[in-house]
Amino acid sequence: MSVMARIVKVAAGFVAGWQVLELLGEGGFLLRPPGAASEADLLARCVRCGKCALACPYHVVKAAPSVMGEHAGTPCIEAREGACRLCEDFPCVAACPTGALRDIAERSDVRMGVAVIDRELCIALRGMRCEVCYRVCPLKDEAVTIKYSLREGDDRHAVFEPVIHSDACVGCGLCVERCVISDPAVAIRIEPAGASPHA
Amino acid sequence: MAGRRTTSWLRHGVQCAALAAFALAGAYAALNGTVAGEGVFFGTLSSSTTRGTLVLSDPFAAFEVIAASRAVPSAGLAASAGLIAAFYALVRGRAFCGWLCPFGLVSEIANWIGKKTKIARGRLLRDPLPRHSKTVAGGLVLAASALAGLPVFELLSPVAFLPRLFAYGVGVGLWLFVALVAVELFFTDRLWCRGLCPLGGFYEAIGSVGLVRVAVREGCTGCEACKRACLADPRILDGTVAGTAGSVTAGDCMLCGRCIEACPVRVLSFGVGGPALLYRKSAPAAAPKEAACEDDAAQDPGDER
Ligand code: SF4
Ligand code: SF4
Ligand code: SF4
Ligand code: SF4
């Protein structure tokens, strides 16, 4: 056997081994498109066909990169880059052949996650008028409401505080996409449903 | 012999057309927005939708999902995967391998380049793996899927690699793909397709009942050109060469037709019918067996591409 052949064999072995390592990579918790019953259920049923991503009219569903271990090729949404618009007919769910995304008849059936406001960063809490998250929410007045209160130590100015109602918030991420604060971080984020213990 | 390679060229045309369909659908989605509504075709090899209504899914992936989720598959999955399984069961399981599989195409191209440029030297293994080891691989994948709660093969499938890359731009299983292409390039063993591919193993398992098969007429001289040309495994042609079988019955056969093209006396042809119909033993044309060329480094004769 030539030296060349030996080198190629070893190299091919290494490359294949790398594949195994990549498989064991950590993915963390991802925001999933509508219809994932739980993180484990999605991972078990998703065949990485990409049809949900291809069907999304807003291109917000992306396939997780290949370095993300067991998540590779599964659908996820990066809310700040593009949030789910909660389409009337849920093309992503309709396209899924395996039932990894399923059982969504109306917007309130969606359970992608829950928005969480960073009270340190949200400028509304510091007395400024913002309420962007409230106004862009497709479920405003249910998922997010505005709480009026007087500013501490100031009897003339009110605080218009956005309050998330976790039972009604579906986690679409539009608030995150539109939040005016980005430095040092966005003032609102979505806690993906997969990250909560009961999922 | 140019005129005799029509089956191969037709086959490569089908292989390329399938790949092009995935790439075009992916490019269309990237440029124009949704494809689901007005789309002609979109998806990957794992599942696709044609004209918004015809859904086809990979039956082996469906079994992985059943194992991983430990649940009854949705009606949609059962129907879309059942259609494909029924089609290949009726024709011939591994017709998928010969006519559609993107990795099959890539490995044939890599083999060809390896031989043309003479970089293919030596063998990876003294003897290729036993041909049934891929069915075992298929079984192991299903067991692993059940244990891990994940459709395991979908995480590294070199079969689905290119359609996925073309459709949504993520190279799932890139490194296994690269390693296997290198193997084909430098060793031309068809190691993966002959012995390791779980999907090929699945299709082999449903492959012996199909109605299309390679049949042999009287007149085989025993030159074994067909065995050297066979993409699946030379051993599956033992029966027709020895005159003990009227057709290739092994589930491995990919209906690639290379044996038919390679036969210098043209006694092989595609036939349609059940085993009973085609199994009729040809009259003892008991042929002088010439030296087998099993120990050659590459199976060059019969491959005049
Ligand atoms: S509901 Fe619409 S916007 Fe949201 S992920 Fe599905 S297809 Fe995309
Ligand atoms: S359509 Fe379903 S199976 Fe396909 S990638 Fe999306 S979630 Fe996974
Ligand atoms: S054995 Fe596997 S990789 Fe080879 S042609 Fe068949 S499905 Fe494709
Ligand atoms: S027996 Fe003939 S048709 Fe079948 S795989 Fe081998 S060469 Fe191809």
Summarize the structure.
Chain A is built from 6 helices and 6 strands; from the N terminus they run αααββαβαββαβ. The longest helix of chain A is centred in the N-terminal third of the chain and has 21 residues, at 3-23. Chain A has helices at residues 3-23, 39-45, 51-55, 91-95, 132-136, 174-178; strands spanning 61-63, 75-77, 113-117, 144-150, 158-164, 188-192.
Topology, element by element:
The complex is a heterodimer of chains A (199) and B (305).
Chain A: H1 3-23, H2 39-45, H3 51-55, E1 61-63, E2 75-77, H4 91-95, E3 113-117, H5 132-136, E4 144-150, E5 158-164, H6 174-178, E6 188-192
Antiparallel strand pairs in A: 1-2, 3-6, 4-5
Chain B: H1 6-32, E1 41-43, E2 47-50, E3 54-57, H2 59-69, H3 75-91, H4 95-99, H5 102-116, H6 133-148, H7 158-168, H8 174-187, H9 191-196, H10 198-205, E4 212-216, H11 225-229, H12 238-242, H13 258-262, E5 268-272, H14 275-278
Antiparallel strand pairs in B: 1-2, 2-3, 4-5
Bound molecules: iron/sulfur cluster (4 copies).
One iron/sulfur cluster binds at residues 33-34, 56, 58, 60-61, 84-87, 90-92 of chain A.
